[in-house]
Amino acid sequence: MTAKSQYGDIKTRIDGLVNGPKRPVGADDPFWPSALYNGLTFFMFFGVMFGIMYFFAKGNQTGQQVGIVSVLFSAIIAGIALPMIPRAFDTKRQHRFNIWIRILFALIFVVIWLGLFYGMAYLPWWMNPIIPAWLQIALGVIAGGAAYLVRRKWKLTQGFFSTQPRR
Description:
By secondary structure, the chain is mainly α. It is 62% helix and 0% strand. It has helices at 3-7, 10-19, 31-56, 68-88, 99-119, 133-153. Helix 3 (31-56) packs across helix 4 (68-88), helix 3 packs antiparallel against helix 6 and helix 4 (68-88) runs antiparallel to helix 5. The protein starts with a helix and ends in a 14-residue tail after the last helix.
């Protein structure tokens, strides 16, 4: 038996080994890279948004400001949840629960997530420090750059800034 009959065309085989297998069009993104991308994107949004809000806040309103741990925690939860929610409502999948139970689970999740986010405002300042506005914006911009790199490295097609429709 020749190598060509066993493994196929040599150029195709080398391309498959070097570049890895290609994902089919419309296939789901890998979960953890997608979660990382969505978490970084949320951190970017929250970091820049709260940083700009702190620039325009009058006086010292530390009781109303959101600490960095709250923003980080919220971004982690959003990063993990955002790849799961579309999969839970995908009509082309076999689901364990009917649509109303899945909607109820999603609503319960959102209520718990927001409750935890606002509940973290009552943590002591040393557990949830409020950082300066310029640092908050800088961290948001760095997170945005990291999200861009994650999206390029794993060739993600789904998420906030996707250019391809989902299936």
